[in-house]
């Protein structure tokens, strides 16, 4: 068949190119630019090659932050995913309480992140905070500004409070999509509650749970605002996550070169882990099939 | 296997039903005989699935009782009733293999592993899925999944009844026929009480010993396929069963004669004066197109459906269908119809009325 040749059609792609360029390519290239150059100020830059990357890889500070970051993401995933599923399973399926639950659950998701941080920062204070004061009153030695363990507990509980709803809502959506006939068949087959969960609910939720895990992983891996507001990365650097460290380096110390190299490795790490996650989980799903 | 008795049973989906219209299932008394195969036939939304779900215990009736072998099970759970039910859309446990799917109801009831293995093999053979036993259910076609559902329904030998809720909707036509035949032979072999919900008359008539026709939440007739054909108790039965359905013609009845727009038709029986909406019903199979005598009609078109011809004609402004033999030639001179007097039924307000013995 004869095809019409019209090179003008390329213009139709232009808006997308412009959009992507401004939203992703240009900012990213600026960072790449910084990461391979050095400066002594005065806006004079010279080529540094991969020097910054090598330096960053030798730097314990980044590895420590990465370790803390992985621990944080791991812990919140281990709590939020099962807890979210548990909440979704216990939510009402119909009636007035559905909307009530949905609204209540959505509330934490709607609060701006630094407000969440502020809420918990005040909530946990031993002098005026409800939580901190109560704990102190019943004799628990709790002070997130001086005790690393208390600081960790605080930011983890905060993140669980903030984001478990998301997992629960996604899981709930997955549950709602299961036709009644499945539950009826299970009743007729005399399946136990556990079997219903294991063989009907969990498989049907797998798709949304995968998305929930991926979203929660990426988000928690990039967390900045809330711990920054609550603990400022302290006590010491015990709650300094990757992005907090990055901001300290880039804006606090104005080490643009190392910070840029850091950024790129950070970005690639998230990309890599997400890709591995996604591949493993889709393969799992295929193998099940 | 059990006799199932419905005693004053009715169901409404509303919390406090007022009139009869609020009931999805109107009051019903019926015995389902032990070991018989029933088809529950009716248009969509007529209450057949409601009735089925009440029998299986998935739904609790608003009023009345259900008895299995004269034991009241109205408040018993589905599991206690020991019922198997197959749903319209395939319900399989995706992550399990076909074998585990079939074994699931037995495992849950704590059957011996050897028995389970034998029984699963038997069922797999019956549904023709022996080769797929080790496969996961997820990747299978809708056909295959529904076969698994059917298999899971049949795997328990001691069930009180087997209920089917339009189970062959998603199955390919040739497979439909095969599965239906298998269900039937299964029924002959094990003698389970079976209730089969469908809106497909062919399915109902070929599967069941007795067909229960439902219309608007009410059972309008229970009978053998032949009874439904020859003596529909309600105009709906006449219209719903048969292809095309029964001709229903408004008429005035006078003794043993029906008067239609001045023309008279002989009836098999005599009637007293009738009140209400009076109609006569005659199946297209018992209408003959002639040249000489009878009621005047105007032939609109003739459809040749292979085994016979269907003549669509106009009788006093309303449509009448006539079934003519495949070899009958339809000529333009044929402008009259006669009815076989033995097969003319009289309906008052849609219900069949028997006349005085002739």
UniProtKB/TrEMBL annotation, chain A:
Residues 66-277 form the ABC transmembrane type-1 domain. The keyword ATP-binding does not apply. It is found in: Cell membrane. GO terms for cellular component: plasma membrane. The chain crosses the membrane at residues 12-36, 70-89, 96-123, 149-175, 196-218, 259-280. SUPFAM superfamilies: MetI-like. Keywords: Membrane, Transmembrane, Transmembrane helix, Transport. It is a multi-pass membrane protein. InterPro entries: MetI-like (IPR000515), MetI-like_sf (IPR035906), Sugar_ABC_transporter (IPR052730). Pfam families: BPD_transp_1. PANTHER family: GLUCOSE IMPORT SYSTEM PERMEASE PROTEIN GLCT, TREHALOSE TRANSPORT SYSTEM PERMEASE PROTEIN SUGA. Belongs to the binding-protein-dependent transport system permease family. This is sn-glycerol-3-phosphate transport system permease protein UgpA. It comes from Thalassobacter stenotrophicus.
């Amino acid at each position: 068949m004869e095809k019409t040749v019209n090179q003008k059609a390329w213009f139709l792609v232009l808006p997308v190119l412009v959009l992507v360029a401004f939203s992703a390519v240009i900012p990213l290239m600026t960072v790449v630019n910084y990461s391979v150059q050095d400066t002594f100020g005065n806006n004079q830059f010279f080529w540094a090659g991969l020097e910054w990357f090598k330096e960053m890889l030798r730097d314990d500070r980044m590895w420590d932050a990465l370790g803390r970051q992985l621990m944080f993401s791991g812990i919140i995933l281990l709590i939020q995913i099962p807890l979210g599923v548990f909440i979704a399973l216990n939510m009402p399926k119909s009636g007035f309480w559905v909307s009530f639950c949905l609204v209540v659950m959505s509330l934490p998701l709607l609060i701006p992140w630094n407000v969440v941080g502020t809420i918990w920062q005040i909530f946990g204070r031993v002098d005026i905070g409800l939580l901190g004061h109560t704990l102190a009153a019943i004799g628990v030695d709790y002070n997130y500004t001086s005790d690393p363990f208390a600081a960790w507990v605080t930011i983890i509980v905060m993140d669980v409070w903030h984001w478990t709803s998301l997992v629960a809502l996604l899981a709930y959506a997955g549950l709602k999509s299961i036709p009644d006939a499945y539950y009826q068949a299970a009743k007729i087959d005399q399946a136990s509650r556990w079997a219903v969960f294991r063989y009907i609910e969990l498989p049907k939720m797998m798709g949304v749970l995968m998305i929930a895990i991926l979203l929660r992983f990426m988000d928690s891996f990039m967390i900045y605002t809330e711990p920054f507001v609550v603990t400022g990365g302290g006590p010491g650097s015990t709650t300094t996550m990757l992005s907090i460290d990055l901001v300290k380096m880039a804006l606090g110390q104005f080490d643009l070169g190392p910070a840029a190299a850091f950024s790129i490795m950070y970005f690639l790490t998230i990309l890599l882990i997400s890709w591995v996650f996604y591949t493993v989980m889709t393969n799992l799903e295929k193998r099940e099939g | 296997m059990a006799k199932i008795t419905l005693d004053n049973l009715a169901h409404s989906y509303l919390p406090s039903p007022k009139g009869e219209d609020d009931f999805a299932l109107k009051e019903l008394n019926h015995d389902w005989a032990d070991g018989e195969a029933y088809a529950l036939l009716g248009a969509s939304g007529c209450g057949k699935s409601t009735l089925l779900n009440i029998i299986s215990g998935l739904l609790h009736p608003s009023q009345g009782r259900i008895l299995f072998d004269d034991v009241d099970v109205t408040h018993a759970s589905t599991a206690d009733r020991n019922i198997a039910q197959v749903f319209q859309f395939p319900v399989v446990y995706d992550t399990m293999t076909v074998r585990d799917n079939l074994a699931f109801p037995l495992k849950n009831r704590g059957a011996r592993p050897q028995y389970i293995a034998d029984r699963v093999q038997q069922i797999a053979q019956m549904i023709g899925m022996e080769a797929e036993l080790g496969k996961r259910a997820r990747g299978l076609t809708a056909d295959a999944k529904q076969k698994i559902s059917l298999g899971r329904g049949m795997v328990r030998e001691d069930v009180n009844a087997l209920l089917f809720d339009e189970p062959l909707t998603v199955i390919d036509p040739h497979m439909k026929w095969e599965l239906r035949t298998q269900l039937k032979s299964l029924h002959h072999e094990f003698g389970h009480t079976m209730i089969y919900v469908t809106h497909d008359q062919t399915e109902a008539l070929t599967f069941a010993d007795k067909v229960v026709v439902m219309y608007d939440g009410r059972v309008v007739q229970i009978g053998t396929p032949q009874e439904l054909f020859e003596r529909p108790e309600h105009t709906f039965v006449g219209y719903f069963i048969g292809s095309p359905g029964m001709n229903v013609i408004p008429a005035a009845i006078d003794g043993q004669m029906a008067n239609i727009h001045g023309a008279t038709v002989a009836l098999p029986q005599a009637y007293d004066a009738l009140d209400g909406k009076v109609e006569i019903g005659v199946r297209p199979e018992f209408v003959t197109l002639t040249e000489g005598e009878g009621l005047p009609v105007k032939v609109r078109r003739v459809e040749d459906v292979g085994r016979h011809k269907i003549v669509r004609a106009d009788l006093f402004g309303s449509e009448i269908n006539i079934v003519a033999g495949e070899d009958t030639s339809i000529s333009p001179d044929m402008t009259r119809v006669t009815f076989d007097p033995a097969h003319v039924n009289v309906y008052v307000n849609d219900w069949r009325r028997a006349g005085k013995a002739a």
